[in-house]
Write a structure and sequence with these properties.
- There is one protein chain.
- By secondary structure, the protein is of the alpha+beta class.
- It has a single domain, classed as Alpha-Beta Plaits (2-Layer Sandwich), CATH 3.30.70.
- Helices cover 30% and strands 22% of the residues.
- Strands 1, 2, 3, 4, 5 and 8 form a 6-stranded antiparallel β-sheet that branches. A two-stranded antiparallel ribbon has the order 6-7.
- Strand 6 and strand 7 form a beta hairpin.
- The longest helix is centred in the middle third of the chain and has 14 residues.
- 36% of the residues are buried.
- The C terminus is likely disordered.
- Bound molecules: adenosine-5'-diphosphate and magnesium ion (MG).
- The site of magnesium ion (MG) has 2 residues, from strand 5.
Amino acid sequence: MRSDGSDPAVVAWVGLGGNWPQTPRLFQGALRRLQSQALVHKVVCSPLYLTEPVGPVCRQRWFLNGVIRIETGLGPRALLRLLHRIERSAGRNRKQERRWGPRGLDLDLLFYGARRICDRRLIVPHPRAHQRRFVLQPMVDLAPEWIHPGCGKTIDTLLQKVDDTHLTILWDGWARTLNRSNASRAATRTFFPDG
Ligand code: ADP
Ligand code: MG
């Protein structure tokens, strides 16, 4: 490990969420931004799911959720700062939004290798990752055997046992979003394991 807490190439998982009409394009922009970083490699995105809103704000659009796997030389705090910068450039302004309410782009750091971190700004593994079907479902699509470093269980086991009954429905609009844009097929293949 380096002095800034980073490893030469750690596998990190980022949760993607949002429920604005333009959210698919914001996801696409976020993937491109991640891919353009010198210290971020092998960006792969899960399938996306339409998910029922969780929490007290019920009367809002369903969310789109997925997860991104990256390999990175950034330390965990630098990675969270990068995620916040990407959120801001997608128009996110936390001061103007309600907790659990509508947002265009939410990027959460779910896992940073097997590291466990708990400070004022960053908790890893993300404290609700193991309780949310909308996190576990897309992560199972990419890495069912990934072990949650907090409880030692695989993501597959956590999904089978999760109490969260909110619906998650596979969304088939991603390919259309990518095809409408100028994304090259090569870039698409980079993001999607079988794209
Ligand atoms: P949420 O994602 O819980 O709906 P926010 O995206 O507004 O809400 O995040 C709230 C705060 O949570 C952020 O200011 C951030 O510093 C903090 N935070 C702590 N741990 C994490 C993490 N693992 N990933 C993302 N944000 C985190
Ligand atoms: Mg967040």
